[in-house]
Amino acid sequence: MFDIDTYLKHIGYTGTREPTAENLRELHKKHMMTVPFDNSRNAPKGLAIWDDVDAGADVFYEALVVERRGGICHEHCGLFRAVLTEFGYDVDIISSGVRGANGEFGHDLEHMLSVVRIGDELWLADVGFAGPSFIEPVRVSQDVQSQCGFDYRVVENAPYLVLERRTRGGEWLAVYRFMLQERELTEWKAIAAGENDDPFWHWAGEMIAAGTLIYGRAYENGQLLLVGRRHLKAEDGRDETRVLAKTDEYQAAIRHILLQKA
């Protein structure tokens, strides 16, 4: 059963339990450094990944904290939302469509994240996106916000807002687009039940079922991401990519990201 004290000990958080921006930043970063992204249990499921979207914080806590496994967006989002609610934050579920390699965005319900209201400010809290993205929450603002040498901003492209990221000396690139529209878990359940006729989902399900494994985790000053054999290290404003052709090197990278011993 979900236990806030055990969760905070697990991620190494020792601060106050006030719903402040500073505490949100620390919780967000420590979660991403401690609880990896790992779709290996879910990759073969296709759109059935949404079957347990409403399983609840107890189930996600058991998998991600007690069993110390990694998870995917709705598992991370569900657990972290429960934590923020315990702290007294005003939290809503929202969704986003992720920019693909071809520059086009996925379906609006492709990814799940949270928006947190603190005073008059809105913050994106997204601990379940493999990346590269942000490791501390980002204000919903056109103001440039810097983390680990990377810049972030949220710009308008009506009817959407777009999260953009920029490497050191690089150009702004979209990460995903979203609307500040509170979503219901039943919307994702409808996808799993085959009630959504959008052809995108049939294509996406086939891609997911192809079994591409994705692992990701943040560390103090950057992020690691492994998509198939493609390894990305995002640090000091630079994205460094290489292909891990050797099996032992690939397995070692997985263990490192998942915080597993050799």
UniProtKB/TrEMBL annotation:
Origin: domain of life: Bacteria
Pfam families, A to Z: Acetyltransf_2
This protein's UniProt keywords: Transferase
Transferase listed as a keyword: yes
Keyword Transferase: yes
Sample GO molecular function, one term: acetyltransferase activity
Family designation: Belongs to the arylamine N-acetyltransferase family.
Protein name: Acetyltransferase
Taxonomic source organism: Streptomyces carminius
